Amino acid sequence: AAAELSKMAATKVDEQGYKLIAKWNGKKYDLDVHKEYTVGQVRKMLQMLTCVQPKRQKIIGLGKKSNLEDDVTLESLQLKNPHSFMMVGCADEDVMLDQSQIDAMPLVVNDLDWNYDPSEYEEMIADVENRQKLQDTIKNVDISVINQPRRDKKLLVLDLDHTLLHFKNKRTYKRPFCFEFLKAVYPFYDIVVWSQTSWKWLEIKLIELDIFTSTDFFISFVLDHSAMFTVRSKRRKGKDGKLWEHQVKALEIIWQKFPEYYSARNTVHVDDLSRNFALNPNQGLKISKFEKTSADPNVEDTELQVLQRYLIHIALSVPDFTTINHSDWRSFGTRA
After folding, report:
1. Residue 280: phi, psi to the nearest 5?
2. Calpha distance 232→124 (Å, rounded)
3. What is the Cα–Cα distance from 322 to 336, expressed in whole angstroms?
4. Does the N-terminal peptide bond of residue 82 adopt cis geometry, omega within 30 degrees of 0?
5. Rounded to 5 degrees, what are φ and ψ at 263?
6. What is the pLDDT of residues 91-134, one digit of tens each?
7. What pLDDT is stored for residue 213 in this prediction?
């Protein structure tokens, strides 16, 4: 495979070629290609490097469309040189997983939550160990951008499991009005998905739900559990008397990576676990936990409809999000 790949990429990158940087599964792959190469040829090169069959590849960011035909030439796409793009898809070894292996993949880490007390923030952010962990994570996390940040847009960070979907009995259920919600808020917000699961599970679910391929909204980037770290609460202790430890989603990671676009002034973080807001309590908006049940099929979850109205309202009327408290968001969205 290596020899064949070298043959396909024999032409050096010059005025007749492109240097492509493919991002997949947290890794980067360099491809030296001729301008006359087709998307189909790029797919074959990616297959050799990743073991992802062309039919399972979804290429994002190579052109304006998310699903390019195989006969499209690279020259017709007017790419930058070098040009980065993202590929999602499961390798052969992952596709061959049996159901028991898939079921065993971790969905969330410790789903137990408590009503997080924002007053803990000052002590927690001042803790030397917590600050060092934050700086180490900022340094080590490599964010693969799928769709570039847009000027003058707010940032909406969304949890996945129990916020947008629920995984139960080997099936994935979308929260009611999920796509309608994402489409409605996209004109006002860049959308980021941040889940405390593994990237492998995230990729499978996001492909299954067609979130990557929608043309009504576009995901800016995705973060998994590798962008989280553990902090110790100063006030809450377990039964054994030890300081309570839990992981957090620190928005400072995003703000320092994209300082010209995002900050505390324009960011909202939606999650069903309030402990994930520990280092950014003012940006946290807690949503009810979504679980697909058959207890009462006549009662429909309208949480995202209410949230949609609230988010659009503050995007249009509040220039600085640090001046508002999201704790009353649901009553506003119901009144609107």
Report:
1. -145, 60
2. 7
3. 22
4. yes
5. -160, -175
6. 765 544 444 444 444 444 445 555 556 666 677 777 788 889 99
7. 74
Residue reference for tokens 């629920």? 166
pTM of the model: 0.72
Q: What are phi and psi of 276, to 5 degrees?
A: -70, -15
Report the alpha-carbon distance of residue 129 to residue 135 in Å, rounded: 10
Per residue in 164-178, pLDDT (tens digit) is 988 776 677 889 999
Tokens 């980067």 belong to which residue?
A: 28
Residue 176 identity (one-letter amino acid): P
DSSP 244-281: EEEEE--THHHHHHSTTT--TTSEEEEES-GGGGTT-G
- The encoded tokens of residue 194 equal 């941040």
CB 189 within 8 A of CB 311: yes
Helix (H, G, I), strand (E, B) or coil at 16: coil
E-state strands within the chain:
17-24, 27-34, 58-60, 83-88, 154-158, 165-168, 171-174, 189-194, 219-223, 229-237, 243-248, 267-271, 284-286
Contact 166, 291 (CB under 8 A): yes
Cα dihedral value 6, 12, 15, 17, nearest 10 = 10
Length of the chain: 336
CA torsion through residues 128, 134, 135, 137, sign? positive
The SS3 call for residue 229 is strand
The SS3 assignment for 143 reads: coil
CA–CA gap between residue 143 and residue 137 (Å, rounded): 11
Give the amino acid at 86: M
Please give the Cα distance from 304 to 307 (Å, whole number).
5
Q: Which two tokens stand for residue 315?
A: 């995007």
CB 157 within 8 Å of CB 228: no
Tell me the one-letter amino acid at 182.
Answer: L
